[in-house]
Every structure is written in structure tokens, then in C-alpha cells.
Design goal:
The chain is mainly alpha-helical. The protein has helices at 21-39, 52-58, 60-85, 92-103, 106-137, 152-155, 157-176, 189-197, 200-227, 236-262. The structure holds protoporphyrin IX containing FE.
Length: 266
Amino acid sequence: MREGAVWPAPPDDGKHNPPGALAADAAATHRQFRMRVATEGNERPAPRPPSRVAAFWGNPIGKKALMSVTGIVLALYVLAHMLGNLQIFGGPGPINRYAALLHASPPLLWTARVILLAALLVHVVAGVQLWLDKRAARPVEYRELRPVVSSTASRTMIVSGLLILLFVVYHVLDLTIGVANPSYVELDPYHNVIASLGRAAAAIAYVVAMVALGFHLWHGLWSMSQSLGVASARLTPGVKRVAVFFATIIALGFISIPVAVLVGVL
Ligand code: HEM
């Protein structure tokens, strides 16, 4: 019989369906048969339970934990990069020697790049998905926005995050690959930075991106302490102060470079 076809009911004429227990048995058998025919051919192997990684990724708490861990990796990179860049105030010698050192071992350099890129990808994809889930859970905007514990930084996390992502793409094209730089010279970051930030528009774009980075780090560090369960009535004020301090130092450290180029100190 064709898949999904309905088995015709036996005629109700008293000969084929005798009254009493026999009739009930026949009806039950008939129902079972119809169900078997209807599902025949649609049988699939029982779904396998999701892997641990998939289960972790599918859970908002797991995703937040991944965002925290990748956020720490990225924040440490940003701190090291900012300290390395400040060597530019010592003239071309120190920063160019530092760049030569970083490029001295290609396997080491590429390992660091792959780790950084993986951390960035996980951080961005998890962040966008969590934001989309949050939006889907509240499809209608509040008529009047009355934030209780959220700050300007928390509401602009997605905006600052995407701005930083755009900045990083432009920045790598500018100072690592060199195609967006007006006069790129291989392994001469001092020259490349001055050449790039000597244009007012580029310097201002850098400053705007660094302000976004400051806000992102400020709220990111604070919400990370909550995701990792560090927050408590006793620790929260201290965590908030550390987050503001770290974010301000990073933003001001970076901003000092385009400002110094703009005002002619560099
Ligand atoms: C004024 C601010 C900044 C300056 C002057 C600066 C300078 C540089 C320079 C000179 C390079 C090339 C290094 C080399 O190839 O040897 C570089 C690469 C890079 N910078 Fe920045 N940077 C700044 C801000 C940032 C920020 C805020 C981020 C991240 C949010 C960032 C992320 C990167 C990345 C991912 C690379 C590529 C590293 C690689 O080549 O593997 N930079 N930066």
C-alpha cells in the first residue's frame, strides 16, 4: 500500500464486525494498522545527543562564558599592543626593533595570529547571536526606555563592538598589509603610523574607534565579572572601578598617538 494511505474501515454490517469484545479488538487492530501505514517510510534513526561543544554553544550561559574567555584573550592583546605602540614616543629605533622582534619567528607570529583571529571570531559570533536572541525575546520595543541597571555602555555594546570590528579590518589593511596606507614601508611601523595618522580624517577615525574601544572594554570587563560569577555585593564596586580604570588607560594610551601626530609632537 502507498505510503501515508488510509486503510479503509471494515464495513459496519454486523457480519464483518460482530458485536462485543471481538468488535473492540478489530477496531484496535485497525487503528494500529492505520498508524503503522501512516508512519511507514518516515522512520529515522533516533537523533544523536548534541556533542559537548554544541551543547555548550547552544546554551546562553555557555556562550557568555566563551565570550568572557575570548574577551580576556583580546583585552590582554590590546594591553600588550598599546604598551608596545607607546614605544613610538621613543623615536623610530625602539618601535621598529620591537616590530622586527615580533616578525623574527614566522611560526610563532602565525600561531599568535591564529589564536587571536579564533578568539575574535568566537567573540563576535557569540556576541551577535546573544544580541539577536535578546531582541527576538523582546520583539516590541519598550514604549518608554527606563533602564534600571544598564548604563550607556551596556546599551551600546553591539554598536561599539561592530565599530571596533570595522576599525580592526581597516587597521590591518593600513598598518599590517599596507594597502590602505599612503606610503607603506615593510617593517617600518614608525614611518607607517606617521604616514597614516598624518591625515586628519584617519587620525579622527582612530580616536573615534579608541573611544568605542574604551566603552566596550569598560562594560565588557564589568559584565564578564558577572558571567564568571565574580560579582557580589562586596566585590562589585571594586570590579567596576577596575573596569573603568583599565578601559580609560587603554583608550587614552592609544588616543595619545593620533593626537600626538595631529599636533605635530610625532
Ligand atoms: C593608535 C592606535 C594604534 C596604533 C598606532 C597601532 C599600530 C599598529 C601597527 C604599527 C601594527 C603593525 C604591526 C606589525 O605588522 O608589525 C598594528 C597591527 C595590528 N593592530 Fe594595531 N594599533 C593601534 C590600535 C589598535 C587597536 C585598538 C587594536 C584592536 C582593537 C589593534 C589591533 C591590531 C591588530 C589585530 C594588528 C595585526 C597584528 C598582526 O599583524 O598580526 N590595534 N597596529
